[in-house]
Design goal:
The protein has helices at 2-18, 40-54, 58-71, 102-115, 122-135, 157-163, 171-179, 185-192, 224-233, 257-263, 270-273, 279-287, 291-305; strands at residues 29-30, 146-147, 199-201, 243-245. Helices cover 44% and strands 3% of the residues. The longest helix is centred in the first third of the chain and has 17 residues, at 2-18. It is mostly helical. Helix 2 runs antiparallel to helix 4 (102-115), helix 2 (40-54) crosses helix 5 and helix 3 (58-71) packs antiparallel against helix 5. It has 2 domains: 25-163, Peroxidase, domain 1, CATH 1.10.520.10; 171-305, Peroxidase, domain 2, CATH 1.10.420.10. It contains 13 helices and 4 strands. A two-stranded antiparallel sheet has the order 1-2. It is globular, with a radius of gyration of 21 Å. The structure holds protoporphyrin IX containing FE and 2-acetamido-2-deoxy-beta-D-glucopyranose (NAG) (11 copies). Protoporphyrin IX containing FE binds at residues 60-61, 63-64, 67, 97-98, 165-167, 174, 188, 191-192, 194-195, 197-201, 204, 269, 271. One 2-acetamido-2-deoxy-beta-D-glucopyranose is lined by residues 84-86. This is Peroxidase protein. It comes from Dioscorea alata. Its EC number is 1.11.1.7. Keywords: Oxidoreductase, Peroxidase.
């Protein structure tokens, strides 16, 4: 009996140790806080929904925030850290233009620290708030979120530039950026569907409108009617202020419509259009024209995204305030 229980203790230690390595989402589980902070997920949802009810643009902000957090040094809440006198943080790198919703995360964190001090990570708040904000219009959770992430304390603008894919990328570069995060071409296509909500500044696509090939023309892979419309919206090549809906007419609804317009050559970025330049990716786009396929695929791919280089168990910390290291 004694040997058996010793053996079990030994097994538990081995298994715990083996799965505490970084990557692959080891240590994440559903409802991680059910014993330590049973109301955690309810609190996140309640506050997030209150804000989304007043600001329908927020889901796009929080979904993109989650993407940026995960792609830069793993899903560790580092996207929330403010720059200091001697460090320019991720949120101040150029690809972060228009990241927003930090106030919502801060409000959630304050409420959670009141309910269960030092328990819930900022990284998990970002993951939950992204899901909850997008789910608001459906009055139910669109996907499950694993929790148990802990917070990092490194946030570097240079890392953001090196890891966030550029909207000017071709298919090869995009798939390489995703592969570095253990995400497949399948994940790349499916997650690009997030561009069914939200807006973009003209500077990320206006090169496609004005003098694209040097003959005063637009990008031939862009729908000509749509290009003409975009030209009237964006004043000129260097318009850094105007924003345009990425899924025109439907930019507040989370659905598979991104793939419908993509097929009509109305993907806004070169990185969107690039998905049609690869046979495998393009076949998947066709499958995602079925909205049930899209939701199911998105659930799986965003779960994988949420596992990128996570800190769990004894790694990382629980930040007291999301915008500063402890
Ligand atoms: C495939 C590579 C990707 C590239 C090159 C890319 C690039 C961009 C760019 C340039 C913008 C416009 C930002 C602005 O002007 O404010 C944008 C917006 C957005 N992106 Fe992506 N993105 C990619 C993948 C993703 C993924 C994986 C997600 C989430 C799962 C995502 C979610 C969003 C959302 C929701 C917005 C709208 C933000 C808003 O309305 O403020 N993107 N993206
Ligand atoms: C949800 O938020 C509202 C308004 O902020 C508050 O009145 C209510 O008690 C909250 N409910 C829960 C379960 O936290
Ligand atoms: C609702 O949104 C408006 C503008 O977006 C803002 O001025 C106002 O403070 C918000 N109200 C609440 C309760 O958050
Ligand atoms: C960064 O600056 C703060 C003061 O703003 C200082 O306390 C800290 O030691 C500095 N850290 C490094 C690594 O230079
Ligand atoms: C939202 O869902 C809740 C619980 O499932 C339900 O009680 C409520 O009536 C729903 N609200 C709307 C507007 O459908
Ligand atoms: C894709 O872009 C990269 C980086 O700009 C470039 O080196 C590569 O040749 C391009 N690939 C194709 C197939 O155009
Ligand atoms: C990708 O998976 C490998 C093998 O499981 C792991 O060693 C690596 O840390 C993972 N990388 C990321 C970015 O998650
Ligand atoms: C278009 O590009 C070509 C080649 O780069 C350049 O010679 C020409 O001046 C440009 N035209 C305009 C209107 O900018
Ligand atoms: C481009 O358009 C923006 C926005 O309307 C304007 O502020 C800027 O002066 C324009 N720049 C040029 C070179 O025309
Ligand atoms: C361009 O978009 C329109 C809808 O606005 C669509 O009817 C047309 O088929 C598209 N053209 C191409 C080449 O996809
Ligand atoms: C950052 O976190 C590591 C552990 O994850 C810790 O050893 C280190 O002291 C922390 N640094 C700061 C500045 O908080
Ligand atoms: C929201 C935010 O932090 N935006 C920053 C993005 O990067 C530009 C250029 O580095 C900054 O000027 C913005 O303040």
């Amino acid at each position: 009996m004694k040997y058996l229980s010793n053996f079990i203790v030994f097994l538990v230690i081995v298994v715990t140790f083996a799965s505490s390595v970084k990557g692959k989402g080891g240590g994440l589980e559903q409802d991680f806080y059910k014993k330590t902070c049973p109301k955690a997920e309810q609190i996140v949802r309640n506050i997030t929904w209150t804000h989304v009810a007043n600001n329908s643009k927020l889901p796009a902000k929080l979904l993109r925030m989650f993407f940026h957090d995960c792609f830069v040094g793993g899903c560790d809440g580092s996207v929330l850290i403010d720059s200091t006198a001697n460090n320019t943080a991720e949120k101040d790198a150029i690809p972060n233009k228009s990241l927003a919703g930090f106030d919502v995360i801060d409000e959630v964190k304050t409420a959670l620290e009141k309910a269960c001090p030092g328990i819930v990570s900022c990284a998990d708040i970002v993951a939950l708030a992204a899901r909850d904000s997008v789910s608001f219009q459906f009055n139910q959770s669109l996907w499950e979120v694993e929790t148990g992430r802990r917070d990092g304390n490194v946030s570097l603008a240079s890392e953001a530039l090196a890891n966030i894919p550029s909207p000017f990328s071709n298919f090869t570069t995009l798939s390489q950026r995703f592969a570095k995060k253990n995400l497949s071409v399948h994940d790349l296509v499916v997650l690009s569907g997030a561009h069914t909500i939200g807006v973009s500044h003209c500077l990320f696509f206006s090169n496609r409108l004005f003098n694209f090939t040097g003959k005063g023309d637009a990008d031939p892979s862009l729908n000509t009617t749509y290009a003409a419309t975009l030209k009237t919206l964006c004043q000129n090549q260097s318009d850094t202020t105007t924003t345009v809906a990425m899924d025109p007419g439907d930019s507040l609804t989370f659905d598979n419509h991104y793939f419908v317009i993509l097929k009509q050559k109305q993907g806004l970025f070169q990185s969107d259009a690039a998905l049609l330049t690869d046979g495998k990716a393009s076949n998947l786009v066709d499958k995602l024209l079925d909205s049930k396929n899209f939701i199911n695929a998105f659930k799986n791919s965003i779960k994988k995204m949420g596992q990128i280089e996570v800190l769990t168990r004894n790694n990382g910390v629980i930040r007291k305030k999301c915008s500063v290291v402890n």
